[in-house]
Amino acid sequence: MQTVHLQRKSTLKLRVWHPDYLVYSALLPTLAEFCVKLQGSLLDLGCGNSPYRPLLTNVLHYVPYDLTTTASRPDVVGVAQNLPFHSCSFDSVLCTQVLEHVPDPWYMLKEIHRVLRPGGKLLLSAPQAWRLHEEPFDFYRYTKYGLQYLVQESGLQMVETVPQGGVWLLLGQSLNNTLWQKIPVKYSLRWFVYMVRTLCINVAFAVCNQLWEDNGDTLNYVILACKSSDSSVG
C-alpha cells in the first residue's frame, strides 16, 4: 500500500510547467473542498509524506499510516487489509491513490468501515486511468461504478462522486507521463526545452478541457462516503 502514484510530487503547489500539473489541477480543489468535512480523529491510510495534512483544518488527532517508511512518514506501519486499531476508533479516514495498489480492496474497505465510528466519513481517491507505476504492486483501475460498488458492499453509504478532469486532461497528462520517462538532466539546456514543452502541453490541454468538457474518460475519481449513524460497533 503506497500512498501516491505520483512519486515526483512533493508539494501542494505545482507550477504550470510541472509534468503533474494537469492531474493535480483537478484533484487538489476537490480534496480541499472535501477535506474540511473531515473532523475529529483521522486515519490517513497510505499517508506517504502527508501532503494533504494542511487541508485537514477540522481534524483534532491525525494518525499517518502506511505500508513502509520508504518515501513515507507514518506513525503506524501495517497493511490496509488488517488495520491494527479497535473498532470505531476514528471519525474520519483519508485514502488517496492507494486502492489500486491493494490486491484485496474489498477487505480494505471493510476494515475502513470497521474502524470508523457511526457517522464517520471516508474521503477516497483512485485512478481510472494511469500508466503502470510502483510495479509490480499495481493491480487495478476503477470506474465510478466499481468504486461505488466496493464502498457500498463494505457497508458504507455513498455521499458524492466527483470525476477528476475530462478526456483532455487525461490525454495531456498521459503525454506528460510518457515524456517524463526521458527527462533530461536538471537545469541543462534540454531540461529547459522539456519544461517549455510541458508548459505548452499543460496550457493547451487545460484550455481544451474548459472549452469541451467530457468526463466519460477521466484521470481519477474522488469518493465521499459515510458510515451510518446507527451502525453497530463492527
Q: Averaged pLDDT, please?
A: 91
Estimate percent helicity.
25-40%
Helix-strand pattern? HEEEEHEHEHHE
Largest sheet: 7 strands, mixed
* CATH topology label of the domain at 21-165 and 218-226: Rossmann fold
- The CATH H-level superfamily of the domain at 21-165 and 218-226 is Vaccinia Virus protein VP39
Number of strands: 7
- Assign the CATH architecture of the domain at 21-165 and 218-226: 3-Layer(aba) Sandwich
- Oligomer description: single chain
- Which overall shape is indicated by the principal axes computed on the Cα atoms? globular
C-alpha end-to-end distance: 23 Å
Radius of gyration: 18 Å
Question: Which CATH top level class of the domain at 21-165 and 218-226 fits?
Answer: Alpha Beta
SSE class: alpha/beta
| Unreliable parts | 1-10
What's the helix count? 5
- Spatial ordering of strands, largest sheet: 3-2-1-4-5-7-6
